[in-house]
Amino acid sequence: MRKMLLLLMSFLIATALAGCAGTPAPKNAVMPMALTADQKEIVDLLSNEREILLFDFYSEENYESREIWVEAYEYGVLTNTLQGLNFFSDDEGRMDGRLAIVISHEAGSVSWSFTANEGGSRVSLQGEPIKLNASALGRAFGPINDPVEIVKGKEIVLYESIYSNGSIRAGGDLQEYIENPEALGDYPYAHLIKCKFE
Questions:
Q1: N or C of the chain: less Cβ packing under 10 Å?
Q2: Using CA atoms, how far apart are residues 62 and 72, in angstroms rounded to an integer?
Q3: What whole-number distance in Å separates Cα of residue 24 and Cα of residue 67?
Q4: Are 69 and 84 in contact (CB under 8 A)?
């Protein structure tokens, strides 16, 4: 069952990433990275027991800081903000970078690692795993499918993972959680990966 779930997850990530192939880069946006068929195959090969999320971000203006983090919710209440990346740039001009997030699920725990590359510089962080009592719960998860506009100081939801012992709402606009986190109120656990540019 777990292998089937991982294969399905790999397919969904590849499908989401493929949706951006051939789409011109917006002026100010974060989006799933467009991959070739060979690149998708490599990501699928590396996705054993983990999820691999790949994003591009572009802006015609420079932002001094970029933040990426995970928020953990229980029944719609924010219980933890987990460490992520916070990196800075003094460079003038267009912001052009890439972000990789690897989510590992092992023995009742979940952990996240982040790597960002911009202008030839790379930063990374491996977060500490957190324990979940979620073995009997179903899960709906996935990244954004379309570009999301970067607005200075505004949070962007890149990914959702929702655990439930009943029905689960899947899909939809992940940005609704910014204004309406209580939409997670029916779920014992939920994790949102967010980013912000300032």
A1: N
A2: 30
A3: 25
A4: yes
DSSP codes, the chain = -HHHHHHHHHHHHHHHHHTTTTPPPPSEEEEEPP--HHHHHHHHHH-TTEEEEEEEEEESS--SEEEEEEEEEETTEEEEEEEEEEEE----S-EEEEEEEEEEEETTEEEEEEEEEETTEEEEEEPPPEE---TT-EEEEEE-SS-EE--TT--EEEEEEEEESS-----S-TTHHHH-GGGGTT-SEEEEEEEEE-
Take residue 167 and report the two structure tokens written for it: 């029905």
pLDDT tens for each residue of 102-137: 999 887 889 999 999 987 888 999 988 888 876 668
Q: Position of tokens 């399905």? A: 8
**Strand bridging mode 50-59 / 156-164:** unpaired
Inform me whether the pLDDT recorded for 74 exceeds 60.
yes
Q: Compute the distance between CA of residue 50 and CA of residue 163 in angstroms, rounded to an integer.
A: 16
Residue-averaged pLDDT of the chain: 82
pLDDT digits (tens, 9 = 90+) for 168-190: 776 678 999 999 988 999 899 99
CB 159 within 8 A of CB 55: no
